[in-house]
Each structure stands twice: as structure tokens, then as C-alpha cells.
Amino acid sequence: MTKGRRLKIRCDEQTRALLVRAADHARVTLSELVSSRAVEAAEQVVQEHESITLQQAAFTAFLTALDTPAAEPSPALLKAAERNASGVDEG
Asked: Could you report the per-residue pLDDT of 4-13, keeping only the tens digit for each?
């Protein structure tokens, strides 16, 4: 991955000293330490907010629901689809 952008952060002297010590112990640069740990934290936050985990029974029920569409859409679904269609640019 090419490093093309600079990210600046502010911290107090104690925090900087701690980060430098940690980078020294890990035998990486301060930038590498902060960047790698920030990416790990960001990936975890994104994972927590953008995915769901289901137990097997719930997953099976979910798949069954997807494979068995309702005979007719509910009024709420029709209304939502109408609102969505009016806000979608198709071309």
C-alpha cells in the first residue's frame, strides 16, 4: 500500500513518550505503530457497526424468510418503496 497522505494528531508529552516507548519495544517507527493500531481499531468499529452475527437457528430462519416472500407486500413496505423510488436517480 502506498503511503500518500499525511495524518497529523495532537497529544501531550506523556502520551507521545508512551507511544515512542511502545514503538521502540515493537521495533517499528512511531508512525507505523500509531497507523497500524489505528487501522486495527477502525476495522473493529466498522465491523461492529456494519455486520450482524446470528446464531444458527436465527440464520436459518432468516434464510427461510428470504426464500419465502410474502404473498403481498404490506402497506408499510409499499409506502417505503414509493418514498425510495421518488428519491432514486436511475440515470
From this structure: 888 899 999 9
Asked if 10 and 20 count as a contact pair (C-beta separation under 8 A), the reply is no
Distance CA 51, CA 23 (A): 32
The domain total for the chain is 2
**Axis crossing angle, helix 13-26 with helix 30-50, rounded to the nearest 10:** 100
In this prediction the pTM is: 0.60
Question: pLDDT value at position 20?
Answer: 97
DSSP string, 45-87: HHHHHH-----HHHHHHHHHHHHS--SS--HHHHHHHHHHHHT
Residue 7 domain flag: no
State the residue range of the domain holding 41: 13-50
Q: For residue 15, what are the CA distances in angstroms to 22, 30, 76, 79?
A: 11, 12, 52, 53
